[in-house]
Amino acid sequence: MEINWSDRINELPPYLFAEIDAKKAEVMAKGIDVIDLGVGDPDIPTPNFIIEALNKAARDPSNHVYPSYAGMLSFKQAVADWYKKRFNVDLEAESEVVTLIGSKEGIAHTPLAFINPGDIALVTDPGYPVYNVAITFAGGVPYSIPILKENNFLPDFDTVPEEILKRSKLLFINYPNNPTTAVADEDFYKRVIEFAEKNQIIVCHDAAYTEIAYDGYKPLSFLEIDGAKEVGIEFHSLSKTFSMTGWRIGFAAGNKKAIAGLGKIKTNIDSGVFQAVQVAGIEALYNYTEGLADRVNIYKERRDIFCRGLDDIGISYLHPKATFYVWFETINGLSSKDFASKMLDEAGIVATPGNGFGEYGEGYMRVSTTFENSKIEEAVQRLKTLKL
Ligand code: PLP
Questions:
Q1: Does 155 sit in the ligand 1 pocket, CB within 6 Å?
Q2: pTM for the predicted model, two decimal places
C-alpha cells in the first residue's frame, strides 16, 4: 500500500533547522570543526533546587496518574502569584491560567480554538515559525505584517488592508522578540489593544523571553496594560527562564473565554503535564529570582563578546536588550542564505539565515548565545577571517 501524506503536511515549508543540519553535516564530513550557534537552547543546566523538587515529586505515587487536563490548581496558583509579584497582574488561577506542555504546544493548538477555515490570522514577519504552521493546520490563512528595522522591529498595523482586517480573527505578537531581539513598550501594547478592540481580533502575545533581559531592562507583560485581558492571552514558558527546555512546561494566561477555548482543545488532544514536573515548576516560580541574575549575566557576557566582534568587523546589528540571540545584517548585500553558506564554508560557523523566519528576515542572520564564552570567542575570531 502506498502511504500518502496529507496536503497539510506536503505543503509545509522544510523545517528550518533540518536544512541547516544537512549542510553542517556536509562541512563536517570535510573534517572542518564546526561551531554551531544556530539553535537557542540553554546550555546552562536547570537549577538544582528544581531538580530536587522533581526528584521528590516523582517518588510520590499520587503524581503517577493522569494529571488534570487544564493543569494542577496549585501550579496555576503559582503562575498567578508569579504574575502578581513580577508584573503586578491579577489572575484568577482556576479560570485565567492553563498549563501547557511547553508554550509551543499551546501556540500550536490555539488557532484550532479560534479560527474557522478561511479565517485570517496576523503574524509578524520575521517570527517564530510555529505561528504560521499552526494557523495553516487549523485551516486558516496567515497574513504577515513586516517588522522592519526602521520601525524598531514593531508591526505597523496601519499597513494591513481593510479587507484583510475584516477576515482576521487572531494576532500573534512576540516581545522580547525571537529572532530580532526587539522589545516593546507600554505605548506599543496600548496600540495593540486599540487595534484588537477596533477590529475584534484576539491577541496572542508570546512572552517566552521576558526574563532574559540585560542592563537593568525589565520587559513588560502584555497583561500589565489596561484592557489586555479583554482582548487576549499571553503565552509563557519555564524553558528559557529556568533552563527547562527539555521539561516541557509552560502556560497561557489572560482572557477567561480564550483560556477556556484553548483548554477545550487540549482536553480533546492531550492529557496535561506530568504532575511531578508541575510540582517542580511551582518550586521554580516561587523562587524565580534564585540564580536568575547569574544565568542572565552569563548570556550578557556572551552577547558582549559577540557584539564586540561584530563592531570590530563593521557588521550592523540590533544591540540586544533581551533574549539570548543576536540579530545582525549580512554584508555586501549578500542574501541570508549566501551569507550563511559563506560563514559555514569559510569559517565553519553555523548561524540561522534570517529568511528562515519569514521573507522580511532576508538580509539578516541570527546567532544564539547559548554556548560557552570560548566558543563564542572562537566564532568571533573566525568571523574576522571571512573574505569580505
Ligand atoms: N516562543 C518563542 C518565541 C520561542 O523562541 C520558543 C522556543 O524557542 C517558544 C515559544 C517555545 O518554547 P517552549 O515550547 O519550550 O515553551
A1: no
A2: 0.96
What single-letter amino acid sits at 325?
Answer: Y
245 lines ligand 1 (CB under 6 A): yes
Q: Indicate which atom in ligand 1 lies nearest the CA of residue 236.
A: 16
Q: What band does 118 get if pLDDT is binned at 50, 70 and 90?
A: very high
* Nearest residue by C-alpha to atom 5 in ligand 1: 178
Chain CA centroid to CA 322, Å: 12
Alpha-carbon distance values, 132 to 80, 89, 108, 227, 269 (Å):
29, 29, 9, 26, 20
pLDDT tens-digit map of 179-225 = 999 999 999 999 999 999 999 999 999 999 999 999 999 999 999 99
- pLDDT digits over 153-177, tens only? 999 999 999 999 999 999 999 999 9
Rounded distance from Cα 384 to ligand 1 centre (Å): 31
Report the Cα 254 to chain-centroid distance in Å: 18
Name which of 126, 81, 133, 125 is nearest 105 in CA terms: 133
Percent of the chain with pLDDT over 70: 100
User: Which of 239, 244, 247 maximizes ligand 1 atoms within 8 Å of its Cβ, making it the mutation to test the pocket?
Assistant: 239
Nearest alpha-carbon partner for 138 in 158, 118, 163: 118
Residue-wise over 40-58: b if at least 16 C-beta within 10 A, else e? bebeeebbeebeebbeebb
Distances (CA, A) of 239 to 246, 247, 277: 8, 8, 12
**Ligand 1 and 179: CB distance under 6 A:** no
